[in-house]
Amino acid sequence: MVFTTRFAPSPTGRLHLGHAFSALTAERAAREAGGRFLLRIEDIDPTRCKPEFEAGILEDLEWLGLSWETPVRRQSDHLGDYAAVLDRMQSDGLIYRCFLTRTEVAERIGQAPHGALEAYVGAPLPPDEEAQRLEAGDAFAWRLSLAAAQVRLGRQWDCMTFTEEGSGPDGETGALAVDPARGGDVVLARKDAQVAYHLACVHDDAAQGVTHVIRGQDLFEAVHVQRLLQALLNLPEPVYRHHRLITDETGRRLAKRDKDQTLKALRDSGVTPTEIRERLGL
Ligand code: GLU
């Protein structure tokens, strides 16, 4: 199997130094392994993703001196593929419609509405109530049923693992146990988007033959849900390499709101790609 990795940005803003580190780290790993480096545009959120940000991503990565295989996979071109997976999961009884709003979910799990809502575990509505809500045209999300997933996986549920060749935020590395319930009944398709991140991500990693998922430690926790989905969908298991996050002088993680740290702003102020690499310790 050819070593294959990817950089998978969402075009919701300009890339910053943290993205540059991720892309350069993945590309270097592919080069050192004589493998493939892919770019994937994760533009499934129709309200936040913009074509000009996608153009900006390509411009910034080219400026950094990176090259990748073409054609670039753009997730919005594959919505039918994700819908087919959801259809299959629906016939297998693995997902259910959830009509709750964010605030209602937050109330049910006793959390502030702005916190992470991931760990919610619910149940489908009784059929007549669900029929009424559908009739009324009420919006719903598709959630994974952990209960159904556990039945489906049987003994596998308790013994799933993943290989971490990098490290998690607390230094986790090596053969690690998957906690399949970690994400709760995770949303796989949102009210306003036809597919949510975890499902599109595992689908595409498999479709693109990704053997090594190289990305920031902010996504370390995502492995639990993603390994569960891989098991349920019979997808191959990639190796994970989570890397450190790039922070500013105060130790705070860079985010899209840090406008002065975007690659475009740095380039416009005369910083060179070599200086970027040096600054990132590469
Ligand atoms: N699109 C995700 C992000 O920009 C990255 C997904 C991944 O690498 O798995 O945070």
From TrEMBL:
Keywords: Aminoacyl-tRNA synthetase, ATP-binding, Ligase, Metal-binding, Nucleotide-binding, Protein biosynthesis, Zinc. The keyword Ligase applies. The keyword Ribosomal protein does not apply. Its EC number is 6.1.1.-. One of its GO terms (molecular function) is ligase activity. Residues 4-278 form the Glutamyl/glutaminyl-tRNA synthetase class Ib catalytic domain. InterPro entries: aa-tRNA-synth_I_CS (IPR001412), Glu/Gln-tRNA-synth (IPR000924), Glu/Gln-tRNA-synth_Ib_cat-dom (IPR020058), GluQ/Sye (IPR049940), Rossmann-like_a/b/a_fold (IPR014729). Pfam families: tRNA-synt_1c. PANTHER family: GLUTAMATE--TRNA LIGASE, GLUTAMYL-Q TRNA(ASP) SYNTHETASE. Belongs to the class-I aminoacyl-tRNA synthetase family. This is tRNA glutamyl-Q(34) synthetase GluQRS. It comes from Peiella sedimenti. The gene is gluQRS.
